[in-house]
Amino acid sequence: MFFNRKGQEDKLENIMEDVEVYSCSDSACNGWMRKDFASDDLKCPLCGHEMTMEIRELPKI
User: Fold this and answer.
1) Residue 19: inside a domain, yes or no?
2) How far apart (Å, rounded) are the C-alpha atoms in residues 60 and 34?
3) 3-13 pLDDT, tens per residue?
4) What is each CA distance from 55 to 11, 17, 32, in whole angstroms?
């Protein structure tokens, strides 16, 4: 029986880190964005409500 190891060696490990994000303050909206990619006006691009800062554990990019 043959087991291919090539796929396992090439697989990248997901490194998780705590990241500051802006999350929509509207409870009905799931919008959020990383602080690095946030717009200047801090309005939700999906619904237009204000966004609040929080910390989430996300994969490193």
Assistant:
1) yes
2) 11
3) 666 665 656 67
4) 27, 10, 11
The boundaries of the domain holding residue 53 are 15-59
Q: Report the C-alpha gap between 45 and 42 in whole angstroms.
A: 9
The answer to whether residue 26 is domain-embedded is yes
For 52, the enclosing helix (H) or strand (E) is strand 51-59
Distance CA 51, CA 44 (A): 6
DSSP letter at 8?
A: H
Count up the domains in the chain and report the number.
Answer: 1
The CA-CA-CA angle for residues 59, 46, 54, to 5°, reads 45
Q: Are 21 and 56 in contact (CB under 8 A)?
A: yes
pTM value is 0.72
Rounded Cα distance between 55 and 22, Å, is 8
| Tokens found for residue 44 | 């939700």
